[in-house]
Design brief:
Residues 158-163 have low confidence and may be disordered. By secondary structure, the protein is of the alpha+beta class. It has five helices and five strands. The N and C termini lie far apart (68 Å). The protein has a single domain (7-151), classed as Aminopeptidase, CATH 3.40.630.30. It has a five-stranded mixed beta sheet with strand order 1-2-3-4-5, with helices on both faces.
Length: 163
């Protein structure tokens, strides 16, 4: 894969990417996924802990503070699915998402895979730079989708009529 982003340029600005799980700031990750993402709203803490435990996780850090995240679900031989990709809003527009995806695609145990997959509603432009295309043969793909249940607020409850 060709290099799009210069690692050293980010390192010089105090940014790093690491797969060391001990560096992950679980609270930052859960807060973003549960409250700000469109794809994981309502994800329970225990579900996310299990997901992280069974994935290759990539943390993006600025001066040792977590500012981004992605995880890869893989068998490390034939298939990888990229999930939960985000960069915190105050760190966007600096190329960090490109650097993160480039780092993931270059990660040693993920080389030679037959298929990579991901789902996105709004970042097609990012992923096409790294070889992703719309699924060919979507009629061959199937899914079971069970969204997380988000707690209802009192204001969401139907009003009872006073009769």
């Amino acid at each position: 894969m060709k290099t799009i982003m210069n690692d050293q340029a980010f390192l010089n600005k105090g940014f790093t990417i690491s797969t060391d799980r001990s560096l992950l700031d679980f609270d930052v990750i859960h807060r973003y996924l549960d409250q700000e993402s469109y794809w994981s709203k309502g994800i329970p803490v225990e579900k996310l802990k299990t997901a992280i435990e069974h994935s290759i996780c990539f943390g993006v850090y600025h001066n040792k503070t977590q500012v981004g995240f992605a995880r890869v679900i893989t068998d490390e031989a034939t298939f990888a699915y990229i999930a939960d990709v985000f960069v915190l809003p105050q760190f966007r527009k600096q190329g960090l998402s490109k650097w993160l995806i480039q780092t993931i695609r270059n990660y040693p145990v993920l080389q030679g895979l037959r298929r990579w997959s991901l789902a996105t509603a709004d970042a097609h432009g990012l992923y096409t730079q790294f070889g992703f295309t719309v699924i060919s043969g979507p009629d061959r793909w199937m899914e079971i989708f069970t969204p997380y249940q988000t707690p209802k607020k009192d204001s969401d409850e139907p009003k009872k009529a006073n009769i």
